[in-house]
Request: fold
Amino acid sequence: MDDGRPLFLQIAEQIEDSIIDGSLPEEGKAPSTNELAAFHRINPATAANGINKLVSDGLLYKKRGVGMFVAAGARETLLERRRSAFAEKFIAPLLTEARRLGMDTEDLKKMIDTWRDDA
Reply:
C-alpha cells in the first residue's frame, strides 16, 4: 500500500473493489476500522478516514452497535462511477487521437477486434 496516494484513499478503494467484485456484498458487513488498521498496520484514524469517505459517498452505512454495512445499490453506483472515469481517462483521449489520425468508428472497431483476437 504505497502508490503515492493517501492511505485512507487506498483503503477506501480496496473496499470499493471488494464491493464491485462481490466479495463484499450489498447489506454485508464491512471490515471494522480496527480490523483494517491491524491488517494494514496503519493508524486506526487513517482507516476510519477511508471508511468515513465511503459513508459520505453513500456506499456504507452504520448500524449502531453492530458495525458498518454496504448500502443497497452501492455496487451499481460504483460501476457507474468507474465506467464514467474509464471513459474520461481512456475513451476520450482515444477518440481525440483517432480523429487526428483520420480514423472513424469502424476503423477503431476493427482495431479493437484485432487486438482482442491477439490477446
Observations:
- The domain at 7-72 is CATH 1.10.10.10 (Arc Repressor Mutant, subunit A).
